[in-house]
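Sample 1 of the test manifest.
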Amino acid sequence: DAKTTQPPSMDCAEGRAANLPCNHSTISGNEYVYWYRQIHSQGPQYIIHGLKNNETNEMASLIITEDRKSSTLILPHATLRDTAVYYCIVRAYGQNFVFGPGTRLSVLP
Amino acid sequence: GAVVSQHPSWVICKSGTSVKIECRSLDFQATTMFWYRQFPKQSLMLMATSNEGSKATYEQGVEKDKFLINHASLTLSTLTVTSAHPEDSSFYICSASGEGGTGAYEQYFGPGTRLTVT
């Protein structure tokens, strides 16, 4: 079973920031938080991952709370092409990825 | 980033026939490859894990004699669906991993193969 809880769906206006929450209250000290997304009929695309510090790359920012029990993926300026299912996964080195149902993000014009 | 390809991207086959799907890591050596299945409006479900040169490890409920996995090299794994039936119609996705620079054991996903069994 997935170790994370995400809202099933969210809407975001084009050009605005999309903030996708994820709860992982049972995360272990050696588990990373990963975010992937899946655009319709494609394979999952890696977005970002982190252990305890906030992370930023060209796609998104990852904010992890100090107790590591939750995190937020931020897409700073959402575009229509960001419409996808976003998966938050916690995983330790060498463990398999377990996908939950994710959050279906709809970016609206 | 690392690239994983799959071939074919889609395939239609008749019930009772077998179909082979290839998964290749294009620019890195994949010590481990994974096969997932995804039914419409559902999430990805891991079917099996394979290490190069070893037998695959199948998840509970996945028939190893029906879904044959071969991982003969560090860049190629194949999934053969034997005696396919309409209920095997699904989106099959592979992923591959090798040692990542961060040590976090990255996993890279292929674009998927849509199988339709008629």
